[in-house]
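Problem 12. The chain below contains 64 residues. Write out its predicted structure in token notation.
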Amino acid sequence: MNFTDLSTAGPEQPAPALLAALQRVGELGRDGAVALARLVADDDGAFDEAADWIADIASGGLHE
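Solution.
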């Protein structure tokens, strides 16, 4: 998937790229998290919502 296609992608297209990116941030540890945090604005509601969904996934609370 191309980065430029994100704004029109359906739910299935970005999922593999997001998973790979999150796993890489996990491998990079604090440095990866800090790099991501630099990009996130304090009032980014879409990021906050996504973080809540990721937390649900991480806790095993989200299933099909």
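Discussion. The chain is about 60% helix and 0% strand. Students who got a different answer should revisit the alignment rule from Section 12.3.
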